[in-house]
């Protein structure tokens, strides 16, 4: 029996009994590589950790330096976390895109638009960073409103 009750979402696990926050976990996105969760539900909000282009089945990086292949995997991983939380890209209100090279913006933006281009696109920041985990060229996180 689910300790949260029969009606609880099996993909959401309370991290502390006194906390209203729920961790969101799915095998369809890479397991965290540190002390964090793939996402956390806090009330009507979902905070998704940044996703890099890891294949969730193997833990290996995808794309071999091809930023478009990396971006596709990042978005696939992010979509899997959103689905595990019972929502989708249409509920995302904010994203942050981290690029190792801002010259990749147009390529990543075209793929990003495929996921977030319909309806009201989320607010977004896009920044170039000195480095990303595991040598990734792109990482994306997001916040979704569930209410």
Helix and strand succession? EEEEHEHEE
Q: Round the mean pLDDT to the nearest integer and report it.
A: 91
Helical percent range? 10-25%
Cα Rg: 15 Å
Arrangement of strands in the largest sheet: 1-2-3-4-7-5-6
| Contiguous helical run count | 2
Largest sheet entry: 7 strands, mixed
CATH superfamily: RutC-like
Structurally, the number of domains stands at 1
Q: Please report the distance between the alpha carbons of the first and last residues.
A: 27 Å
Enter the CATH topology name: 60s Ribosomal Protein L30, Chain: A
Number of strands: 7
State which percent range the strand residues make up. 25-35%
Low-confidence stretches: 1-8
What is the molecular shape?
Answer: globular
Please identify the structural class as seen in this structure: alpha+beta
CATH architecture: 2-Layer Sandwich
Q: Specify the CATH class.
A: Alpha Beta
């Amino acid at each position: 029996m689910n300790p949260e009750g029969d009606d609880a979402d099996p993909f959401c696990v309370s991290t502390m009994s006194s906390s209203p926050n729920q961790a969101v976990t799915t095998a369809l996105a890479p397991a965290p590589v540190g002390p964090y969760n793939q996402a956390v539900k806090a009330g009507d909000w979902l905070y998704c950790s940044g996703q890099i282009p890891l294949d969730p089945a193997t833990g290996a990086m995808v794309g071999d330096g091809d930023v478009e292949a990396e971006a596709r995997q990042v978005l696939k991983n992010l979509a899997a976390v959103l689905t595990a939380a019972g929502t989708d890209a249409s509920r995302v209100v904010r994203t942050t895109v981290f690029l190792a090279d801002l010259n990749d913006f147009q390529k990543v933006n075209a793929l990003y638009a495929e996921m977030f281009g319909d309806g009201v696109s989320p607010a977004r920041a896009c920044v170039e960073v000195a480095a990303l985990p595991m040598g990734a060229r792109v990482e994306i996180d997001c916040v979704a409103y569930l209410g």
